[in-house]
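REQUEST ID: PR-0412
SUBMITTED BY: lab tech R.K.
PRIORITY: routine
TASK: structure prediction, single protein chain
INPUT:
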Amino acid sequence: MERYCWNVIKYGNACFPLMTYSEKLTARIESTGSHLCVGIDPRPELTGGDLEGFVFSLIEQTAGYAAAFKPNAAYFEAAGSQGYALLEKLVADIPEQIPVILDVKRGDIGATQAYYAKACFESMKGVDAVTVNPYMGFDSVEPMLSYPGRAVYLLGVTSNPGAEDIELQALADGRQVFQLVADMAGRAGSHEGEVGFVIGLTNAQPGILEVIPDAPLLLPGLGAQGGDLDLLKEAGRKAPVVINVSRGVMTGEGTAADRAQVFRDRISAALA
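STATUS: complete
OUTPUT:
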């Protein structure tokens, strides 16, 4: 069965999901005991000129430790049409039970965003969720929410220093800008897709999860960026949480499988 028809009933050319994105991700977390999201950012200096061999070896070695995979489209698009074709092939070939979060950070006016959504969820077979930049407003998010069983991760507090420039700025009512993004979860209830949030471990402040709705979380910044997992202690969240590690799994001592296991175990211990 094609990967993109897992988790669905198929009638003719139409696919109807059997479970939500949260249910699929939760099932994967429970079956593996892992909250590790393996980021796929194939920098040229790492691939040795063999982009395809590198990414497929990474998938093969780390699949047993991954709650999800997150290919970053930029690194594939930089290789031109062949790189994009490889991204399509990679996503379609990832084991069907492992959720795929396509890291594209798309954000545009509604009509254009609808075509971005089509590119991510229709043209590319196998994408379960995408990252979305919501700073053009909720109407720029809505087209991505038209797909049952799929999800968007809105940029809440990112892991880069520039999060201070906009996301963490104070509003007149005492809240911070990222809380306006958090409020979008309440507006997504009538749509078929789900809303989650990106919260960078490097910039997350104490108590931040108290003002983020209990929705799926994608947490970058643990590996090379040195983020702190204490954010998750006693958070009491029910929605699935995955912690992304890219460079820390792709490079370092031992094999990619060794490194993925180390991060899987480290994250599991922090969440225990």
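NOTES: Residues 58 and 256 are 7 Å apart (CA to CA).
REVIEWED BY: pending
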